[in-house]
Design a protein that fits this description.
- There is one protein chain.
- This protein is mostly helical.
- α2 (about 35-55) runs antiparallel to α3 and α4 (about 75-95) packs parallel to α6.
- The protein has a two-stranded antiparallel sheet.
- The chain is built from 15 helices and two strands.
- It is globular, with a radius of gyration of 22 Å.
- About 45% of the residues are buried.
Length: about 300
């Protein structure tokens, strides 16, 4: 629903697990009725989804907390687990990994959770540990997620295993995992994870100095990012292309990509992404001897950092 899974998939999962229809015969027709509490919980989840898509994680969190109360009030276990998962993801987005772990652990304590939801909880725990650079734990939970339930989300698990291997400089292993992930994501129509696989392969090729192949992979990822309409991923891929050009000494092209990344993040209201783009762009200006523009960007960065605080 919100972020950890494909958003549409998780919304679908919530609807499937939380709606119980009562069927009544009336004049030869069947009338479907929906319990009031379920309806209200779904409304809160839909509002939370919209808020999260806009980047308003605080509002999304409040909506999911309200939905969680309702699902708990009627012992809707799967609905409760999905809300806890959404809340964990939102806390992670807010940078509070400790609180995110707490909600994931609460899911593990629930009885009778379906394998697909539990697999997502295990996967989210892996993502949290990766964010904390606790690689052994991240690998452990990614593998647990894979062993419990694969489904259409299997490729995302191989992506995270590839990312772990890349950080550990185990490049051959990382290539293997990312290639496996790419095939699975294409066959399962997981466009967002396909883009992640392409970026991983592009990163690895850049490290290996296979610059032509790396550029092609980043461009393929960018095409998918644009189709999805994911501003953060578009900015990330543009920054990666900028870094690729920078490594090759192509400062003009590097500056162009970093400016595009800056504009995407700034217009999306993503201050963190904007600051990252500013840092990258500042490096290009400093490298090319443009101290005036470099200083302007550093001043803007200071203002943005004050706003975040």
């Amino acid at each position: 629903m919100v972020i950890a899974m494909n958003r549409k998939q998780l919304l679908f999962l919530l609807l499937i697990t939380s709606i119980y229809f009562s069927l009544y015969a009336c004049g030869g027709q069947q009338i479907q009725t929906l319990p009031v509490v379920h309806t209200k919980a779904i409304e809160y989840n839909q509002k939370g989804l919209k808020a999260a898509e806009k980047g308003d994680y605080e509002k999304a969190l409040n909506y999911n907390l309200e939905a969680l109360k309702l699902n708990r009030s009627i012992e809707n276990t799967d609905g409760t687990a999905v809300n806890m998962l959404n809340i964990a993801v939102l806390y992670s987005k807010k940078g509070d990994t400790a609180e995110a772990h707490k909600y994931i652990n609460d899911i593990f304590a629930l009885q009778g959770i379906n394998d697909a939801t539990m697999s997502e909880a295990l996967f989210e725990n892996a993502r949290l540990y990766l964010k904390e650079i606790k690689l052994a734990e991240a690998r452990e939970y990614a593998k647990k997620s894979l062993s419990l339930h694969k489904g259409t989300r299997e490729g995302s698990r191989w992506n995270i295993l590839s990312r772990i291997a890349l950080i550990e400089s185990k490049y051959d292993e990382a290539f293997l995992y990312a290639g496996t992930a790419l095939k699975l994501n294409i066959s399962n129509n997981q466009a967002k994870e396909e883009s992640n696989s392409l970026r991983l392969l592009a990163d690895l090729n850049m490290i290996k100095k296979n610059y032509s192949e790396s550029r092609k992979l980043y461009e393929n990822a960018l095409e998918i990012d644009k189709k999805i309409g994911d501003s953060k991923k578009i900015a990330l891929t543009l920054r990666s292309l900028g870094e690729l050009c920078f490594r090759q000494g192509e400062l003009k092209d590097s500056k162009s990509y970093f400016i595009r990344a800056y504009e995407v993040s700034r217009n999306a209201g993503d201050m963190e992404g904007t600051i990252i783009a500013i840092d990258a762009l500042t490096s290009v200006y400093e490298k090319s001897g443009d101290k005036v523009n470099a200083e302007k960007l550093l001043k803007e960065k200071t203002i943005l950092q004050q706003k975040i605080k």
